[in-house]
Prior knowledge:
With about 575 residues, this protein is α/β, with parallel strands linked by helices. It folds into 5 domains: about 1-140, Conserved hypothetical protein from pyrococcus furiosus pfu- 392566-001, ParB domain (Alpha-Beta Complex); about 145-200, no CATH class; about 235-315, no CATH class; about 325-470, no CATH class; about 485-560, no CATH class. The chain has 26 helices and 11 strands. It has helices spanning about 25-35, 55-70, 85-100, 105-115, 120-130, 130-140, 145-155, 160-165, 170-180, 190-200, 210-215, 235-255, 305-315, 325-345, 350-360, 380-385, 390-405, 410, 425-430, 435-450, 455-465, 480-485, 485-500, 500-505, 510-525, 555-560, and strands at about 1-5, 10-15, 40-45, 50-55, 75-80, 220, 230, 260, 275, 285-290, 295-300. Strand 10 and strand 11 (about 295-300) form a beta hairpin. Mean pLDDT is about 80; it is low at about 95-100, about 410-420 and about 555-565.
Amino acid sequence: MHLNHIDINDLTVSPQNVRKYGATDCADLVTSIRALGVLQPLLVRPSGAGFEVVAGQRRLNACRIIAEDCGIDPLPCLIMEAGDDAAAIEASLAENIERLPMDEIDQYKAFAALVKQGRSAEEIAARFGITERMVAQRLALGRLHPPILTAYRKGELHARDLRSLTLASPKQQKAWWALVKDEDAYAPTGQRLKDWLFGGAHIPVSNARFDVEASGLAIVADLFGEESYFANSEAFWALQNAAIAELAERHRAKGWAEVAVLEIGEPFYTWDHIVTAKEDGGKLFVTCTQQGEVAVHEGYLTQTEAKRRAKAEAGETVAAKPELTKPAQNYFALHRHAAVRNDLLTRPDIGLRLIVVHMLTGSALWTVHRDAQRAAKPEIAESLAENKAQQAFETERAEMIKLLGLETERVLPADDEWWHARPDAAQLLAHLMTLDDAEITRILTLLMAESLAAGSQMVEHLADQLGTDMGAVWSPDETFLTLIRDKQALSGMVAELAGDMAAKEHLTATAKTQKLVIRACLDGTRKPKVAHWLPRYMAVPMAGYTERSGFPERAEQEAPEIAIAAE
Length: 567
C-alpha cells in the first residue's frame, strides 16, 4: 500500500464499498474540505483505467461538489493491491461503522460478503469491535423474503416485525407478505405476528409428512383459499412425530454421523453452523415449525463444535469438558425438583405466595402448565420413578383429582400433558364453589408445585427455605454412577466414602475402578467412612468437586487436596 495523488475524474466508487444509503449526506464534509482540504486519504485500489474508492465515498462526493464550483486538486489516496475483496470490504466497514450509521441492510450484505470470503461471525465481530450477536442479527436478514426487506428499507415495516419474521420459515414469510398485499385481509403485527407465527393450531394439510388419506384425519377446507387444515391438531402431531422419526432413521441408514431432530418450533440458524460434508463428520438437522412444516438441513456442524475440531487438529489445547454432562445435569435437576416440590406440598402458605410471585413476574410455565419432567435418557426416567418424593407427589395428585370431582382421563389425558384436555370452566367453577378454603388452598399449592420449573434457581432457593433433605427421598443408584464420568469428581467421592488414602491409591486408576470402590462402600462390601453418604450434587446448596463445576467455591475449598492427572 502506498500514497499517491489521483485526479478526481479517475476515481469511482468500488462495488465493495458497503455503504449504499447515506453517502450523499456530506454537507458537513464540504465545509471542512473547503477550509482545510482532504485531511485523511481515500482508500482505493486499481480498477481498469482508474481506481475504485473502497473507503471514503462521502469524502469523494464532497470533493465532487467542490469541483463543480471551482475545481479541485488531485486527491490524496492510499492504493491497495488489486483483487483483495475481503480486505476491501473490511476497510469499508471499519470506516463506515465508525462514522455515519449505515443502513442495517447494507450491514447485512457486507457481513454476508465477508462470510462468503471465509470470515466467521466471531472474526467479523472482533475485527470491528461489535458483538457476535449483532453480526448474527444482521446475517439473519438474509433469510427474509426480498419484498419484506424492500418494504422495511422504505420505512413501511416496523423493525420489531422484521425481527419476528427472521424466525419464520420462507413459506410463512410469503404467506404473511400475501396478507400485507391483500387489501381485504389482515396481516398481524407486533405480538399478534408472533402468535400467528408460533402459537397457532391451524396446521395446513400440505405440511403433513404422512399419508393424509390413509390416516383418516378430519380435514377442514378453506372455501376462499387453496389450503385445507387438520381439524384435530393432537391427532396430526401423533402421526407427524412418527413420520419425522422415520425420516431421521432413513437418513441415519444413509451413513450420517448424527441426525439431530430439533424441538418443535426451534429454529435452525445457518449462520451459527459451518457447512461440513458428510464424509468429514457433518451432521444432519431436522426442524419442524409449530405449523408442522418439516425441513432437513444436511451437512452442518455448530460453530462451537467446528472450532473444537479445528483446535484439536491443529494440536491446540481444547477447553476442559464440564464436570457434569448434560444428561447428568438433567438427572440431578429432576431429582432435586421432585424433592423440593414434594416439600412445597406441606407449606401451602409458601405455595400461595409463589403464585403471587408468578403472577407479578411471570414464569416459563405459567398459565398453568405441568412441568413434563422430560428425562434425557430412559434410565433417568426409571430412576426418577423410584424417588420417594416423586411417588408421594403422584399420590397427592390422585387425591386432588378426586377432590376436583373430575374423571381421571379429563385431567390426565397423557403422562406429560396434564391440563391438555381442560374441563368445562363453568362446571369446574360450580364444583369449586362447594369446596372450603382449605381444600382450595390444597389444590392451589399442588398446581404451584406442578408449575415449578425443573432445574430453575427457584428450586434451589426453595430447597434452602424448606430445609429439603435429599437423603430422605433419594439414595445413590446405578444410573447416578453411570452418569458421573469426571475422574476428579469421582476421586473426590472416593475420598469422602473411603478416605483420602484410598483416593490417593486410586489416583491413576480408571474411572471404572474408582466407581468399583464407591459401589463397594455403598453396598457394604467395604466399610464406608461416613454413613448415609450423599454426593455434593445432592447437598443444599448444591456443590461440586472441581473448579470447573460452576457451583460455589465453598465446595472446592473443602475438597481433599489431591492432584488429579488429566484423563
